[in-house]
Design brief:
The chain has about 140 residues and is an alpha+beta fold. It has a single domain (about 1-125), classed as Roll (Hypothetical upf0131 protein ytfp). The chain is built from four helices and seven strands. Helix 3 (about 110-125) runs antiparallel to helix 4 (about 125-144).
């Protein structure tokens, strides 16, 4: 199964602990979505964000999916949806993405959590997206 990660699960070190069989397929963009922060990150549909949110796409096993379900609080905290990612080479991949359930959209992220996602962006070479995606998402959260 293809798994679309937009937060701390974007980097191999984090995924190695949670899903030891996962294989990174590459980076892409989840178009027509924006990154949002509450206590944790989520993505939300937004047709004005045509470029979208940078993501990592992983191949995961059924066992890995069950481990991620537990870690992500599925089905209570996050639900799962199918989405299409536009990869760096122009191809498209469909996969599963966790979306935060409405009842949990409150609060602000802890600094270590936000900084882990920022480090993931840096490690993956997504430095320009820190300014265009990550920081605006945090600013929206803090202004609510």
């Amino acid at each position: 199964m293809k798994y679309i990660a937009y937060g701390s699960n974007m980097v191999e070190g984090q995924m190695a602990v949670r899903t030891p069989n996962a294989k990174l397929l590459g980076l892409g963009m989840l178009p027509n979505h924006r990154l949002e922060f509450y206590r944790h990150a989520t993505v939300e549909p937004d047709d004005t964000c045509t470029k979208g949110v940078p993501v990592a796409v992983w191949e995961i096993s059924d066992t890995d999916e069950r481990r991620l379900d537990y870690y992500e609080g599925f089905p209570y905290y996050y639900s799962k949806e199918e989405a299409t990612v536009r990869m760096a080479d122009g191809s498209e991949i469909k996969g599963m993405v966790y979306i935060m359930n409405t009842g949990y959209k409150e609060g602000t992220p802890a600094k270590p959590y936000y900084n882990a996602i920022r480090r993931a962006y840096e490690k993956l070479g997504l430095v320009s997206q820190i300014e265009t995606v990550l920081e605006p998402a945090l600013a929206r959260c803090l202004s609510r």
